[in-house]
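Input sequence (395 aa), recorded before submission:
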Amino acid sequence: MSKQTIPAAAPMLMPTYNRFPLTLVEGKGSWVWDDKGGKYLDYTSGIATCNLGHAPDSVKQQLKNQLDKIWHCSNLYHIPAQEQLAEKLVEHSFGDQVFFCNSGAEANEAAIKLARRYAQEIKGTDAYEVVTFSQSFHGRTLATLAATGQDKIQQGFAPLAEGFRYLPYNDKRALEQLVTDRTCAVLLELVQGEGGVIPADEDWVKQLAALCKQNDILLMIDEIQTGIGRTGTLFAYEQYGIEPDVVSLAKGLGSGIPIGAIIAGRKAASAFSPGSHGSTFGGNPFSSTAGLATITHIMDNGLIDQAAELSAYLEEQLQCLKQQFSFIKEIRGKGLLQGIVVEGNAMDYVIKAREQHHLLVLVAGPSVIRILPPLTTNKTEIDQFISVMEKVFAS
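Predicted structure, token format:
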């Protein structure tokens, strides 16, 4: 591990992040190294992005090959890797067609545009409203922060974009208010990640999906944090016995190379036509190669089944932690997206884990420690993580 000297502060950067006092310069698998040679167990996965761990060889080799060919061309031309990646996503999902972009926020923007256009151009209505849920998180563009059901995300950006309505999450009685003559779609996280690692109730989701189908309202699942194997299936919706109309993806799709996508069934996808939407960088040869290598490696190497097995082991060990410490109020989540709900300030534990034990974890709100191991972790690393958290909680 070669040491690098990096400035401690970068005052030329806009202060949009409260950065930890840590400079990461190298990563491999579940591990990262800082500029002083310190080694850390990374159970953040770049916020659910490095699902194959850091610098996976299978993706790296394909990217090296692509660098010798062509890095970028516009969507005015055919891009083989993009078409192959779309094929893979369609093959392993409910969908028929894919649109590629650069990020999760852009994927949700595309979904929102598709829903409005479907209502107006295909159904011939003037419906435009998208229903989302309290404590949701869908992005930070003007449209997606308006779709987000959190005041703190929206603060300072008034007037918010019109066309969004919020209902309580996991509330069956509130579903009576789901449909109005303005409603064109529902946008839903099946595990609210930023909102506190809160899984959706299965019966509630099925009832919601049935209402969408009865009223020809698009059911759009935000799988930006839950997708690409994180919850123990390739997509979280598979665990709920529903078929969405649209799914949005990003994060884990490219192993850290920026890429976003929406998958849609033929009915919803028919709303887009040439000129109705686009992206200069979306699905370019480099990002599509990353996505194709990532999903190919996951599907060809049994990582979905492995993630499901590791998830069960992780959940079991987390429940043992809960039994040891009375201030742990709940363990919740799905698969390799888990939250430890604690009394007091969760960030205090995150800081102790990093400073005293070289373990990286996150928060999801003030009282939830968020855990996001890569799909490629193993029981030895899980045991090490649990051992560190025992020491952190004991202190």
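Checked by second reader. The longest strand covers residues 328-334.
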